[in-house]
Design a protein that fits this description.
GO terms for molecular function: lipid-linked peptidoglycan transporter activity; peptidoglycan glycosyltransferase activity. By secondary structure, the protein is mainly alpha-helical. The protein has helices at 2-25, 29-56, 63-83, 93-109, 133-148, 159-180, 183-199, 204-223, 226-236, 247-258, 284-317, 321-345, 363-380; strands spanning 123-125, 128-130. A hairpin with a 2-residue loop joins strand 1 (123-125) and strand 2.
């Protein structure tokens, strides 16, 4: 009898291990592979775009890429070992409300720290800084997904969850725009919330009315700040003020046209030599095209599109409404950031400070984005059961 029990125990343990391995195999491989490719591509381009400036200033050429690499390793560890393993259903509405309060306080607290490049967007301590607006984008998505997952239970009062989402998103957007002078991130927060409201089944009247309010708020933020209007005018005719407000866009266009089809070669960008401001950050796509040409830029855009496609596919296969909305919200943030960044670089959108996900330098952005990918991976492991005939 004892031997039989021992044999049963021995037979159970391998089965449990096989189940654990099978759980990892169920994660979306395309998303994992594309994310790894984007991170490696980003590290390569951060090194290339920042090395010249670092050497001229007396630093090691690899100073910025070492810092970015540390954040990349930490972010990948957080993505794989924490967020991809935590059941996304544990992000309850109650827990999310606490997150909203904490992250809102952090976004207000930036005014207590010295501005960087004229803007108060970072919290600094012990030589380390982080940008709380990066957290704001995803906590709003998480809150919206929680509030809107049971829209059918609010048939008599459909405005209730919709207005709560709009007010939270509007509050974050207002704080980010007014206190941090970051109109683009504020717009991403609002648009992401509108997308989830629409996908949740809210009426077009609700979506249209709230979209009009949001657009009016962003328009007021644009009109009441002279420098934003100056950026808008320089965006329309950058070469008329090539040494002033149009300087960054003009240098970006020179970089884009100087690369040709195959580019000047990795590390051979001319514009990164103090001609193009923020070459390793907001305008890193211009350096990519200058060094790797149209072909390199196309490959990078293709990787981003694959990332977005993977997120949409995960959302469509999610086992419940919460998973679908959460996956779509995260994917929307990635899509909006990528679209705005590339549009700014090619002159299709006014110059604004939005990083290119996984590519631009920035530890906070990279780690938060990787954590968000971890949530997508967890959702992909819990697919809806297959329908039987």
């Amino acid at each position: 009898m004892v031997q039989t029990k021992e044999k049963a125990v021995r037979n159970t343990k391998p089965s449990s291990r096989r189940k654990s391995r099978r759980k990892y195999q169920e994660a979306d491989f395309m998303l994992l592979a594309v994310t790894a490719a984007l991170v490696l591509f980003g590290l390569l381009m951060v090194y290339s775009a920042s090395s010249y400036e670092n050497v001229v200033k007396g630093f090691a050429a690899y100073k910025d890429v070492i810092k970015q690499g540390i954040f990349a390793l930490a972010g990948l560890a957080v993505m794989i070992f924490i967020f991809s393993n935590v059941d996304y259903h544990r992000y309850t509405l109650q827990l999310t409300k606490y997150g909203v309060v904490v992250i809102l306080i952090l976004n207000v607290a930036v005014i207590l720290f010295d501005p960087t490049k004229g803007a108060s967007r970072w919290i600094k301590f012990g030589g380390i800084s982080f940008q709380p607006s990066e957290l704001a984008k995803f906590i709003v998505v998480l809150y919206a997904a929680n509030m809107l997952k049971r829209m059918e239970t609010y048939r008599r009062r459909p405005w209730k969850p919709v207005m709560k989402v709009f007010l939270v998103a509007g509050l974050f957007a207002g704080v980010i725009v007014l206190l941090q002078s970051n109109l683009s991130i504020g717009a991403i927060v609002l648009i992401s919330a509108f997308v989830l409201i629409f996908l949740s089944g809210a009426s077009l009247l609700h979506v249209g009315f709230l979209a009009a309010l949001g657009f009016a708020g962003l328009l007021m933020a644009l009109l009441f700040e002279p420098y934003r209007m100056a950026r808008l005018m320089s965006f329309m005719k950058p070469f008329e003020d090539a040494q002033g407000d149009g300087h960054q866009l003009v240098q970006s266009l020179y970089a884009l046209t100087g690369g040709g089809f195959f580019g000047r070669g990795l590390g051979m960008s001319r514009m990164k030599a103090f001609w193009l401001p923020e070459a390793h950050n907001d305008f890193i796509f211009a350096v990519v095209v200058e060094e790797l040409g149209f072909l390199g830029g196309f490959i990078l855009i293709l990787l981003i599109l694959l990332l977005i496609f993977s997120g949409i596919r995960i959302a469509m296969k999610a086992q419940d409404t919460f998973g679908r909305l959460l996956a779509m919200g995260i994917t929307t943030v990635f899509a909006l950031q990528s679209l705005i960044n590339i549009a700014v670089v090619i002159g299709a959108f006014p110059v604004t400070g939005v990083t290119l996900p996984f590519i631009s330098a920035g530890g906070t952005s990279l780690m938060v984005n990787l954590a968000a990918v971890g949530i997508l991976l967890n959702i992909s492991r819990q697919k809806a059961p297959a329908k039987t005939a």
